[in-house]
Amino acid sequence: MTDPRPRHDAAVSGMFGRIAGFYDLLNHTLSLGIDYYWRHVLARNVRVGSTNRVLDLAAGTLDVSLAIRRRFPQVQVPAMDFCPPMLQRGLHKLKGDNARAIMPVAADAKKLPLPDASVDCVTMAFGIRNITPRSEAFAEMLRVLTPGGRACILEFGSGSERIWGGLYNFYLDRILPRIGQMVSRDPGAYAYLAETIRHFPTAPALEKEMTDAGFVRAWHIKLTSGIVCLHVGEKAR
After folding, report:
1. Fewer CB within 10 Å of terminal CB in the chain, N or C?
2. How many structural domains comprise the chain?
3. According to the annotation, is 108 in a ligand binding site?
4. Which residues take part in binding S-adenosyl-L-methionine (predicted)?
5. Could you report the per-residue pLDDT of 200-231, keeping only the tens digit for each?
């Protein structure tokens, strides 16, 4: 039987490549600018240790990498994404010290080109939904984290939960795909976004996936009434 995962990965990478030019605009517009706050909370939960290195996965156009550097100006940030056009779009944001400290690299989160125990923290914003199977990405995070290291994963809440009396679910199903299509001219991209949110696990279910993968403990913080959750997992010391 043919493994469907490479085809899925290629399709997702290609889709993000097609919308790379509109990605930042749509992020800010569709979230009404709240995405800046979400990334701020993510960076605030980063913990830095002996390596002075934070790995940003699904780094996209590098906004999270820059948020990490604003909070920790001394750290190096390998910024990895499996869609090179997304990283390319972020290069113009790298000025001064950030151009040296943030290192964009095309890479698969399930096969990281890093040695064991080489980073203090791993971040990922709105990327874990796109990875199949998630267990392989969690295993790689644990491998590259130092003992006691932390993974901070920002992701949309599950569309299976009614948020704001179902208003968010209506927005997700009806409004978001239409706005995304009008701006990006890609009818599939934001329909895919809504679909993956709708089928994403609840926060407790994702925590169980993380502890099953080997994180010694995991918890979450609800943001904006649970539209987004920050999931934090720690590796044993």
Report:
1. N
2. 1
3. yes
4. 61, 81, 108-109
5. 899 999 999 999 999 999 999 999 988 899 99
